[in-house]
Design a protein that fits this description.
The chain is an alpha+beta fold and 91 residues long. Helix content is 54%, strand content 14%. The chain has a domain at 7-62: Diphtheria Toxin Repressor, domain 2 (Orthogonal Bundle), CATH 1.10.60. Strands 1-2 form a two-stranded antiparallel ribbon. The longest helix has 19 residues, at 44-62.
Length: 91
């Protein structure tokens, strides 16, 4: 279980990511520098929490899984389907 992010952190990160989506990637250190350039953050701890949350969101966005779709009639492979993280655990 992780730590719960406050509404201030989430709202600020979503706003910054909406304004500057190209600045962030899945590297924490890079995101720390990008957060400092994008906004004026009052404390080091808040900057680190925001950078961690950005990293988590970027990783979750890029994480997908491909599932083979098999035809019920013939039993042969009918293609592939990209499913997200939630879909993968509901099956």
């Amino acid at each position: 279980m992780g730590r719960i992010k406050t509404k201030l952190i989430k709202r600020s990160v979503h706003k910054i990511m909406h304004e500057h989506p190209e600045m962030f990637n899945n590297d924490f250190e890079h995101n720390k520098k990008a957060i400092v350039n994008a906004a004026d953050i009052p404390s080091k701890k808040m900057r680190n929490v925001m950078s961690g949350y950005v990293t988590r969101l970027v990783k979750a966005k890029t994480r997908t899984r491909v599932r083979k779709v098999v035809s019920r009639d013939t039993g042969r492979e009918a293609g592939t389907r990209v499913i997200g993280r939630r879909d993968a655990y509901q099956r």
